[in-house]
Amino acid sequence: MVGPYRGLFTRPGTTGFVLAGFIGRMPMSMLGIGVVLLVQTLTGSYAVAGAVAATTNVSFAIAAPLSGRLVDRFGQSRVIPPFALVNALALTALMLCAGYGLPAWTLYVTGLLVGATSLSIGSMVRARWSSIHAGSGTLHTAFAFESVLDEVTFVTGPVLVTLLATGVNPFAGLTVALLCMLFGSLALAAQRRTQPPVQRLTSSSGTPILIPGIALLSCVYLGLGAVFGSVDLVTVAFAEEHGVKAAAGFLVGAFAGGSMVSALWFGSRHWRISLRGRFVRALAMLVVGLLPIMFIGNVWIMAFALFLAGFAISPTIITGFSLTERLVPPSLLTEGMAWISTSIGFGVAIGAWAGGRLTEAYGASNAYGFALGAAALAAAAGAAGSGLLRIPEASSPAKS
C-alpha cells in the first residue's frame, strides 16, 4: 500500500512544500470546532456558536475563488504573506471580543474577517503537485496522498483543539491554530522553486464555475460540506449529552480517521473504473455509512460508526480534485480548486447553522438526520449530472 507513494518525493523541494502545507492547513480542522468550543463556553449557546462558525465559513467560501485567482495571477509567494498576517490579526480580534464579552455582532464581524482572509492551502499544494506531475498517472497518487494529509489534520486537529480548549483554556486551541497557520503558510510562500508558474490571464479566461462539470461538482460539494459542518457541531453536542464533552474531538477525529484509512488504500490502487464512476459510487457509500448514526446512544459505538462512515469521504475528495484538474485550463487551476473549497465552505456554514438549531430543538441524535439528508441530496445530484464529468481519453493516461 505504501509503495506507490515513495516515488512522490524524488523531485527536489517536494518534501519542503508538503511539510509546510501540512502545518499550514492544520487550522482547516481546528478553526470550526475551536470557534464552537470558545463561543459556546463563553455564551452558553450552541446556536450562537454555530452561527459564528457559519459566518466564518461563508466568508471563506466567498473569498476563496478570489484569492485563488490572485494566486494564479501573481504567484503564491506574493499573495500568501499579506493574507496570513491579516488573518492572524482577525483571529486574535475574534478571541478578544469573545473574551471581553463584547456584543454578539462583534463575533460575527471578526469571524467574517477570519474567513475572508483564510487561504485554501490544500488547493495551493495540489496546484504544485499538478505542475510537477501534469498529465501523469502519478498525479492520482499525489492527490490521494494530499487527502491522507487532510484527514490526518482532521484526526489530530479536533482532538488537539478540544483537549486544549477544555483542559487548558478556552483560547488555547485557537491560539495554536493561529500559530500553525502563520508558520506553515509563510514557510510555503518562501519555497518559490516548486510554486506553479504565474499564468497570464486573458479577457477570455472567464471563471471555472461557468464550466458545467465544475458547476456540478460545486453543487455536490455544497452537500458534502453540509455533512461535515453538521456532523462536527452535532457530535460536540452528542458528547456533552452523554457527559463526555472532552471526547468530542475524538469522535470527530474518528470520522476523519476512516477517511484517512480509505485514502491510503484508494490512492495505492490502479483503477479501471472511470473517475466519474468512482465519484458516484463513493457518494452512495457515504449515504449508507451515515444511516446508523441517528440510532446510536453509546459514545464508543458512535466512534466506530463514524469511523466506518468516514470511509467514503476521501474517494469523493480525491476524484473531485482529479476531475477539477482535468476540467479547468492550467491558467485557472488554483481558482478552479478553490471553487471546491468554496462549495465545501458554504456547505459547512449551512451544516453548522442547521446543526446548532436542530440540536437545540430536537437533540443531537435527531439532528444527525440533517447530515444524512445532505449526503443523499449530494449523491442524487452527482448521479443525475455525471454525464457532465466525462473527460476525453486524450486528457490523461488514466481512464476517466
Task: Explain the overall architecture.
One of its GO terms (molecular function) is transmembrane transporter activity. By secondary structure, the protein is an all-alpha fold. It has two domains: 1-196, MFS general substrate transporter like domains (Growth Hormone, Chain: A, Up-down Bundle), CATH 1.20.1250.20; 208-387, Up-down Bundle (Growth Hormone, Chain: A), CATH 1.20.1250.20. Helices cover 76% and strands 0% of the residues. The chain is built from 16 helices and no strands. The protein has helices at 3-6, 14-24, 26-43, 46-74, 76-99, 104-116, 121-133, 138-167, 172-189, 212-241, 248-267, 275-290, 299-309, 313-327, 333-362, 364-384. Helix 8 (138-167) packs across helix 14 (313-327). The radius of gyration is 20 Å and the shape is globular.
Task: Give the topology.
Elements (H helix, E strand, L loop, with lengths): L2 H4 L7 H11 L1 H18 L2 H29 L1 H24 L4 H13 L4 H13 L4 H30 L4 H18 L22 H30 L6 H20 L7 H16 L8 H11 L3 H15 L5 H30 L1 H21 L16
Helix pairs in contact: 2-7, 2-9, 3-4, 3-8, 3-9, 4-5, 4-6, 4-15, 5-6, 5-9, 7-8, 7-15, 8-9, 8-11, 8-14, 10-11, 10-15, 10-16, 11-13, 11-14, 12-13, 12-14, 12-16, 14-15, 15-16
Average pLDDT, all residues: 86
What is the makeup of the main sheet?
none
CATH 4th-level superfamily of the largest domain:
MFS general substrate transporter like domains
Q: Total number of β-strand segments?
A: 0
- Gap from first CA to last CA: 22 Å
GO molecular function, one term: transmembrane transporter activity
Subcellular location: Cell membrane
Membrane topology: Multi-pass membrane protein
Keywords: Membrane, Transmembrane, Transmembrane helix
